From TrEMBL:
<feature type="transmembrane region" description="Helical">
    <location>
        <begin position="56"/>
        <end position="80"/>
    </location>
</feature>
<keyword id="KW-0472">Membrane</keyword>
<feature type="transmembrane region" description="Helical">
    <location>
        <begin position="217"/>
        <end position="240"/>
    </location>
</feature>
<feature type="transmembrane region" description="Helical">
    <location>
        <begin position="187"/>
        <end position="205"/>
    </location>
</feature>
<feature type="transmembrane region" description="Helical">
    <location>
        <begin position="92"/>
        <end position="111"/>
    </location>
</feature>
<keyword id="KW-0812">Transmembrane</keyword>
<dbReference type="Pfam" id="PF05940">
    <property type="entry name" value="NnrS"/>
</dbReference>
<feature type="transmembrane region" description="Helical">
    <location>
        <begin position="377"/>
        <end position="396"/>
    </location>
</feature>
<dbReference type="InterPro" id="IPR010266">
    <property type="entry name" value="NnrS"/>
</dbReference>
<feature type="transmembrane region" description="Helical">
    <location>
        <begin position="308"/>
        <end position="331"/>
    </location>
</feature>
<keyword id="KW-1133">Transmembrane helix</keyword>
<protein>
    <recommendedName>
        <fullName>NnrS family protein</fullName>
    </recommendedName>
</protein>
<feature type="transmembrane region" description="Helical">
    <location>
        <begin position="277"/>
        <end position="302"/>
    </location>
</feature>
<feature type="transmembrane region" description="Helical">
    <location>
        <begin position="153"/>
        <end position="175"/>
    </location>
</feature>
<feature type="transmembrane region" description="Helical">
    <location>
        <begin position="343"/>
        <end position="365"/>
    </location>
</feature>
<feature type="transmembrane region" description="Helical">
    <location>
        <begin position="117"/>
        <end position="141"/>
    </location>
</feature>
<feature type="transmembrane region" description="Helical">
    <location>
        <begin position="19"/>
        <end position="36"/>
    </location>
</feature>
């Protein structure tokens, strides 16, 4: 077998390999594009943005719909059969999903320069990949003979909501209908990303904790999970209805649930094991983000909408602090475990994760402290540059694992 055939053999040996690899590359490309945009805004280089779409709407789309989904699908295609004792997903299925989505992303980037035709073609390919992924996930869900299917149902429904958000973005590109963009933005965060990551956290953090901490009791209160999912749906629905000043009560409730779960999941005990600590730290950002969302909404309500407090700080605490940190932590664990390596987080990856937490602080400080606001462009550029450096180093370290055999000689 030639070299390219060998690489394909290993990339297709397990669902996470190709999908994580594309997610890793997209993590770098997404922020590289944004760093260039921010550098242009800061006057450090000439602007090179050719897109007819406002850069902020491209940035949000790339983050939610073209970066996170590769990692989420790589994880779900691996865990869905395990959660429910279902049939393993076939290589031709997950490779088809990966290739459709990857081709769509490439055409989307090309369309930012060439225009709406390539943008639309890229979005159509992404929609096709997502639709096939949903069919695959629900086939496992419906045919699995046993197992607890509650987590799988939430994740599956959230992915349908994400597909609808992607549809809405495509319609916005074609029609310029503002309501389509608004739905895509809210659906991507509140109906897709947050329900899925809360569900995965609820399922996996207690499980992983029980594997490495002595005398650890697994606690998974499903009542809290349903309440948290309900709160995030209410938040998104109120935002879409233009009633953002009333979302604070749902945000505060969700923050309280998240802080309580961090407590009963033994946040401080997790620091005995780095690979576990990164998951607990990531989840802690959920409580912090929703607390700031709640305070923002409450102040908006009390001031009759005269001032929008904290700017985008709560959103970046959620998207970078919780979403991206959790992806980094989970992807590291899955890559090590399924690559045949010991489940130990080395010094480099630990330092990258700590630096990633600094990214969150750098991004939100100008929005929280008015005295720093004049320096916001510099803070944003530094934060994005640190993100880019972290993921680039992560890719250099972990990406080769995906196209090589497991070091323990096992299949997968």
């Amino acid at each position: 077998m030639n070299k390219s055939g060998t690489i394909w053999k290993y990339l297709s040996a397990a669902p996470h390999r190709s999908l994580f690899l594309m997610g890793a590359f997209q993590a770098v490309l997404t922020i590289l594009w944004w760093v260039i945009e921010l550098a242009g805004r800061a006057g450090l280089m000439e602007s090179v943005s050719f897109s007819s779409i406002m850069p902020i709407w491209v940035h949000g789309f790339l983050m939610v719909y073209t970066f996170f989904p590769f990692f989420i699908l790589g994880f779900l295609f691996t865990t869905f059969p395990n959660w429910m004792n279902g049939e393993k997903i076939k290589a031709n299925q997950y490779m088809t999903v990966c290739l459709l989505m990857a081709a769509g992303v490439v055409l989307f980037y090309a369309g930012l320069i060439a225009g709406k035709f390539l943008l639309s073609a890229g979005l159509l390919l992404m929609l096709s990949g997502w639709a096939y992924a949903i069919i695959i996930l629900f086939h496992v869900l419906f045919t699995a003979p046993a197992g607890d299917k509650r987590h799988a149902w939430v994740a599956g429904m959230a992915f349908i909501a994400g597909w609808l958000g992607l549809c809405a973005y495509a319609l916005w590109v074609l029609t310029d209908g503002r309501e389509m963009l608004d739905f895509s933005r809210q659906a991507g965060i509140w109906f897709f990303m947050l329900p899925i990551l809360m569900t995965v956290s609820h399922r996996m953090i207690p499980f992983f904790s029980s594997r490495v901490l002595e005398n650890y009791v697994v606690v998974r209160p499903f009542g809290l999970l349903w309440l948290m999912v309900g709160c995030t749906v209410v938040h998104g629905a109120l935002q879409l209805a233009g009633l953002q000043e009333y979302v604070w009560w749902a945000d505060m409730l969700l923050a309280g649930c998240a802080f309580y779960l961090s407590y009963i999941w033994r946040f401080f005990r997790s620091f005995r094991v780095r690979l576990l600590a990164v998951l607990h730290i990531s989840f802690a950002w959920l409580g912090i983000a929703m607390l700031f969302f709640g305070l923002q909404g409450m102040l908006l309500w009390l001031s009759d909408g005269d001032r929008y407090w904290f700017g985008l700080a709560p959103l970046h605490m959620l998207a970078v602090g919780y979403f991206a940190s959790m992806v980094l932590g989970m992807a590291s664990r899955v890559t090590l475990g399924h690559g045949g390596f010991p489940l130990v987080l080395d010094n480099l990856t630990w330092l990258l994760f700590i630096a990633f937490q600094v990214v969150v602080l750098l991004r939100v400080i100008p929005d929280i402290f008015p005295g720093v606001a004049p320096l916001a462009p510099q803070f944003y550029l530094i934060a994005s540059s640190v993100w880019l450096s972290c993921f680039l180093l992560w890719v250099i370290k972990y990406a080769p694992i995906y196209w090589r055999a497991r070091v323990d000689g096992k299949a997968g």
